[in-house]
Amino acid sequence: MIFAPDDPGPIAADEALDVRVLKVFDGDGFLANVWHPLREAWVERIPFRFAFIDAPEMEQPFGPEARDFLLGLVGGKKLRLLPIGKESTGGVPIDPYKRLLCMAYLTEQMDPGRVEYYHEGKRGSCLVTRPRSVTRNIELEMIVNGWAWVTEQYAFDREAEYFNAQDDARRNRRGLWVSNNPDPPWNFKRRQKHRMRQAEGQGRLI
Question: Is 174 helix (H, G, I), strand (E, B) or coil?
């Protein structure tokens, strides 16, 4: 397991969401309750999707493994999320499936011991001598541990760091990179759509 310590910097209260994860759908999507500070209540069962990673579909090889890895990272835990608007969504942080696009940060205690980490584009290891609180970037941890690709269709500020993490996972054959040529989910979904259009066309001819 490689950790990705990350400091998102100061975040205004109205820019971030505090959530508790209820369910993990796959390697890049989950359901969570969201804390509403004005109402002082939880808004229940909001779907989220990570903005800059793409994990295997559940029907693909490594899909269930990617989901299980994410579940181990965030299942039942509190996260701080940054909503992310994209050009493709008109700057609104909601995708076509009504999921909120986000980057996710997890803050929890790291116990003493030797740990591997990925930080500022480089991987290393260190000895943690006493328990301490660490904030981690969940997208980067999915990538560097080999369970997700970086999305290629969107440019973003930290893409060089993300792609370096992906290259490190590929070189060291972590996660799905144990396969010589893993199939990216966008190719898988494109083939599915093509097959559906073909089936619909054949249905009209009958």
Answer: coil
